[in-house]
Amino acid sequence: MKLRQLGEFGLIQRIEREARRIQGAGVVLGIGDDAALLRAKAGEDVAVTSDAFVEGVHFRFDHESPRTAGRRALAATLSDLAAMGARPLGFTLSLSVAPSRDVDVVLAVVKGGLDVAAEHACPLVGGNVTASRSFELHVTALGAVTRGRALHRAGGRPGDRLFLSGPLGQSALERARGRVRHVPEPRIALGRALAWTGRVSACIDISDGVLADLAHLCRASDVGARLRVSALPRPPGFEAACRRVKRNPEELLLSGGEDYELLFSVRGSAPIELPPELRARTSLSAVGVLARGGLELVDGQRWEANGGPEKGGWQHF
Ligand SMILES: [Mg+2]
Asked: Ligand 1: distance of its center to the CA of 77 in Å?
């Protein structure tokens, strides 16, 4: 069935039905009214973040299934809440899509997004659908974070050690292959745990590539950094897989993007203590240190000299 046969309100009803599977503790009034009502706990601030996912720019159905595209959209948005140390309260979804699209494709994208949202107890609380030539999802996520505990990009100081969660490069490698199945996990639990330690001086999620995002963190903190390229965590067999698609492994690690791992700086030399259940499924790698001056890559093979903080990474314009 095509969307024009189902109609706007038919589509909204189908989405509402799918959305019922996610309950959120902070929802006073959910989907279906003119606006949703959300409630943070006393002593919390509300975090808000928005992302756009446009067919041909962020996803393409000859590379990935509609469900994977939807999953990646929500993962990207929730990753920004993770980088603030926030717990999700809910999200809105605005869909722009051509009336000639198959209903099944559109609903598969929505279900993919709801899959990831469900994993993080983040209910769909509203949105909009509109006819459009292009297929676009606009996701706004709201979260809550204890006042004074939010993680920021600013706050890093020379000497703070840099850590990175999880491996980099998998998303970029799959895009290079033209076959995308990997959906990064937004590090919500890790971000919240890091916020509670009170020792994380700056934090950012890796959406544009570690080089570009480290540059963002450095600029916000008004510091430089030394990044050890050889210490960047990567999936097993990564170098050989890159060679097969004729891509430079270091370039994909540094600038591939869509990794959605957390890059953060820590004050002092004591180890970061994570809750045991999180420690068991989180690998943290020490990848460098904040420093005075510019951004320097240490022991990279090709990028050895300082490429400058602007070099590499995804930029739209
Ligand atoms: Mg971000």
From this structure: 8
In the reported structure, the alpha carbon of residue 76 is separated from the centroid of ligand 1 by a whole-number distance in angstroms of 8
CA of 61 to the centre of ligand 1 (A): 25
Q: Which class is 9-146 in CATH?
A: alpha beta
Which residues 6+ apart lie within 8 Å of 310 measured at CB? 215
For ion ligand 1, residues whose CB falls within 5 Å = 80, 205, 207
Measured in Å, residue 101 CA sits from the centre of ligand 1 at 31
User: How far, in Å, from the CA of 33 to the mean position of ligand 1?
Assistant: 30
Q: Please give the share of the chain, as a percent, with pLDDT higher than 90.
A: 91
Ligand 1 center to 16 CA (angstroms): 28
Q: What CATH homologous superfamily does 161-298 map to?
A: PurM-like C-terminal domain (3.90.650.10)
Domain borders along the chain are: 9-146, 161-298
> Ligand 1 centre from 205 Cα, in Å?
5
Q: What is the pLDDT of residues 108-139, one digit of tens each?
A: 999 999 999 999 999 999 999 999 999 999 99
Kindly calculate the radius of gyration of the chain based on its CA atoms and give it in whole angstroms.
20
Confidence (pTM): 0.93
pLDDT given for residue 299 in this prediction: 79
* Interval 141-166: pLDDT, tens: 999 999 999 999 999 999 999 999 99
How far, in Å, is the centroid of ligand 1 from the Cα of 83?
A: 7
Task: Please report the pLDDT score of residue 296 as a whole number.
Answer: 92
